[in-house]
Amino acid sequence: MTDRDELGQSLFASIGDFLARNHLTPEPINYEFGYRVCSSPDGALAKAVAAITEGGFRLTRKDIVSLGGDVSNEPVAETASAVAQGLVAQTQMQVEGFADLVAAMRADTRDFGRNLVASADAIKSTGQVAPDDVLRLTHAMIDRVQSAESQLEAATREADELRQKLEEARDNARRDPLTGLPNRRVFEESFAEQAAKGTPLCLAVCDIDHFKRVNDTFGHAVGDRVLKAIGATLEEQCAGHLVARFGGEEFVVLFTGLELAEARLKLDAARTLVANKRYRLRETDAPLGAVTFSAGLTATLPGEAVGDVFVRADRLLYAAKGDGRKCIKLA
After folding, report:
1. What is the dihedral of CA 86, 89, 90, 91, to 10 degrees?
2. Continuous segment of H or E residues that includes residue 293
């Protein structure tokens, strides 16, 4: 193992330890911040982190922001954008590679054609053909065909791999990276599609109660697990309908083909299941306490824009919050 490899492994281990000490998930935004700290242990950022964490304290997202780390959704978007740009570059290279391959095959075909014409002219002028010339031309043709087949096979394999990556990138761009649920874009597209068909729709906006308290008390890693658990419960109890993460601790549920009362039954089943579950910390098995969510639920009107429906459901959500939380308000 080279010194460079050992240095890389040491840095990787240091970043892992840094994330573990501060209960930070190894997502890109946290890893990037850890890299900046660990790659320059004597730098100003590392010293600032050491001062904050002295005495056994751990970093919070607020600390990371104050130290110049960007922990909004923008780094995720930038990462997705970088991936997309990389795939576009790969696609461009693939297209250029095919063009070069076709150009090379054309050149080989022209050269081979010239050789055939020259051989034919020689046969005409002499009235005979040497067996060695036939063998030479045949072997040359076979070699070129095999070379072209090999290049085409490699290019096709690369194209298949690139196509798969593009499909994955397209799917990732439509999903929330934390919960795996469809994102806001998918929700808005689905609403527009179903509304255009005249399908009866109900929209619920759900928000986790006192979520900031969970983050401040137990850390963002625990908060992320709560988000994933509630998202999974909504998806399970509202199966057959679109559940999406709208942003932060907000989820939306788009019920299609249901009356308002039917949609409420499904949503309330999810609310009750979440409220009755007693969460525990994975690391210590200590109780996290009850976690609940509130929701606003409304039916859509014919021709109504998604923004108008969302505003109405959001107002109902705030009414539920003002009425003691852990309940559903209907229009």
Report:
1. 120
2. strand 293-299
* Cα 246 to Cα 260: distance, rounded to the nearest angstrom: 21
- Quote the percentage of the chain above a pLDDT of 70: 69
Beta-sheet strand order (sheet of 250-256) = 242-247, 250-256, 201-208, 293-299, 328-330
pLDDT at 227 over 70: yes
The Cα-based distances of 323 to 75, 150, 294, 316 in angstroms read 36, 70, 10, 10
Q: Which position among 249, 250, 259, 262 bears the catalytic label? A: 249
Residue pair 250/206 in contact (Cβ under 8 Å)? The answer is: yes
| Most confident of the ranges 90-99, 113-122, 124-133, 264-273 | 264-273
For residue 275, report the phi and psi dihedrals to the nearest 5 degrees: -65, -30
pLDDT band at residue 77 under the 50/70/90 scheme: very low
Count of Cβ atoms closer than 10 Å to residue 220 Cβ = 22
Ramachandran angles phi, psi of 278, nearest 5°: -110, 110
Place of tokens 């990276």: 177
212 by Cβ neighbours in 10 Å (0-12 / 13-18 / 19+) ranks as: exposed
249 is catalytic: yes
The token pair at 244 is 């999406």
Residue 243's region, left for phi above 0, alpha for psi from -120 to 50, else beta, is beta
Which residues, 6 or more positions from 143, have their beta carbon under 8 angstroms from its beta carbon? none
pTM score, whole prediction = 0.57
Helix and strand tally (H, E) in the chain?
11, 7
